[in-house]
Amino acid sequence: MKSYQYLLIIVLSAFVIILVVFHFGDIPNRHNNGFVRNYFPSAISKVQEAGFQDVLYDIVGSTARCIYVTTATPGEILEVSRNQHDGTKRIKIPFFARFYDSLQLGSLAVKIDSPYVYLFAENKPAIAKTTFDSTLFEVRILPPGPFTREAMVSNDCFILRKIEPRLTDQVFVRYDLNTGLLKKEDGISQIYGDGGVVSDGQLHFDAATGKLYYIYFYKNSILSFDTSLHFLARYSSIDTTSSFHISTAIVNNSGTAAYTNVTPANMINRVNDVHNGLLFNMSTLKADNETDDFFSDHSILDIIDLKNGRYLGSIYFPAPNGSKPSKIMIAENKLIALYTHSLIIYDLHLHPDRQDQ
Amino acid sequence: MKKSISVVAIAALLAVGTAFTTKSQTGGWWNVYNPIAGKTPGIYFGTADQIKGIWCPGDNNVICAYLISNTSVVIKKP
């Protein structure tokens, strides 16, 4: 065989190898994901949009009259009226500057159950309770171990996802602000020993069913348990991603050791909320019956019946300039979608027995 | 001489192939953290530190790291 033939074979082999690597690479949405969506017809209509110069972080509470949103400015909350003509009010959290400095509250989450404001100092760990009119200020220091998720199940009673130092992982606990009692779960969470990074997700309480739901970010599992921390059920979101799409390990950097992701964190369930026994979940995965353009131009919420885990259908709304909400809240037949610089409210007209097929 | 040419040709081919693969992946991936207005979302490749540096800022509420040196601290965004 002549030398140029060897060269040709090597060149072709290199091409084939590159094509094989490209074809079988783990690239989300490049191949079919193995599920289809059905859509509820005329299920959603826009009623209000408010734009802001601020960077909006989170929807931290709502009433029949307004919606509370945190911004990139520490200690500041926007009170966005549901009546467009009333505009938006800026609120400073009472005592914020004082206890933020003195307690060194890092990773602070806020929840508002008007008139009460709860501040979750996740790394301290501590919970502070105050009121808009500054007549109350209470701080509770929790046992060691940061927490990362919190859901209010009744006045002054919270379910937290908290580090259990013995396990180097997070478990669910119930904390009563009045008594200071903390109860740990038994057998709800699977333990991976990486500080809870791989099993990170979102925790919701549904007042209608009295149950809690934990939706994993990186796989399609949904856990259901009650306020006494008894495991109830495990469901799955519409897609077929049954294993974690992220890997974690210890990384050492300048003398600091940390558990973090060592592969791209491929989020599966991006944002979600529960309401009246229904899960509204935005998946990052395109259904096999959707085009690339449709999927990138719309935000799609899959609705799952939390009584039995059955997929009921999906709703969709436009993604302005290609951006999708960083947070959603379902309240009083309304969908509230939060973007970096805007908040949009939609009316929901859901009839779970009717879908486009 | 022929061997040198072969090695150079293969190296060039691999470089082109790698660039092609990376470009295609960037266009096809879904970046859940920093969607770019008006463009197909992309994803970033890099070492763990680079990924953390790129992915931790932003408005999504995910755990980026759990520091275990000295005191235990969870790094979460925002």
Structure description:
The complex is a heterodimer of chains A (357) and B (78). Chain A is mainly β. Chain A has a single domain (31-348), classed as YVTN repeat-like/Quinoprotein amine dehydrogenase (Methylamine Dehydrogenase, Chain H), CATH 2.130.10.10. In chain A, 10% of the residues lie in helices and 46% in strands. Chain A has 3 helices and 26 strands. Chain A has helices at residues 3-24, 96-103, 292-297, and strands at residues 44-51, 56-62, 66-71, 76-81, 88-92, 108-113, 116-121, 126-131, 137-141, 147-154, 157-164, 169-176, 182-184, 201-206, 211-216, 221-226, 231-236, 248-253, 256-261, 269-275, 278-283, 298-305, 310-318, 327-331, 334-338, 342-348. Chain A is globular, with a radius of gyration of 23 Å. Chain B has a two-stranded antiparallel sheet with strand order 1-2. Chain B is elongated. With 78 residues, chain B is an alpha+beta fold. Chain B is built from 2 helices and 2 strands; from the N terminus they run ααββ. The model of chain B is unreliable at 19-48 (pLDDT under 50). Chain B has one domain (2-76). Strand 19 (256-261) of chain A pairs antiparallel with strand 1 (63-67) of chain B, so a sheet runs across the interface.
Sum up the structure in keywords.
heterodimer; A: 357 residues; mainly beta; Methylamine Dehydrogenase, Chain H; four-stranded antiparallel β-sheet; 26 strands; 46% strand; B: 78 residues; alpha+beta; two-stranded antiparallel ribbon; 45% helix
Short structural summary:
The complex is a heterodimer of chains A (357) and B (78). Chain A has helices spanning 3-24, 96-103, 292-297; strands spanning 44-51, 56-62, 66-71, 76-81, 88-92, 108-113, 116-121, 126-131, 137-141, 147-154, 157-164, 169-176, 182-184, 201-206, 211-216, 221-226, 231-236, 248-253, 256-261, 269-275, 278-283, 298-305, 310-318, 327-331, 334-338, 342-348.
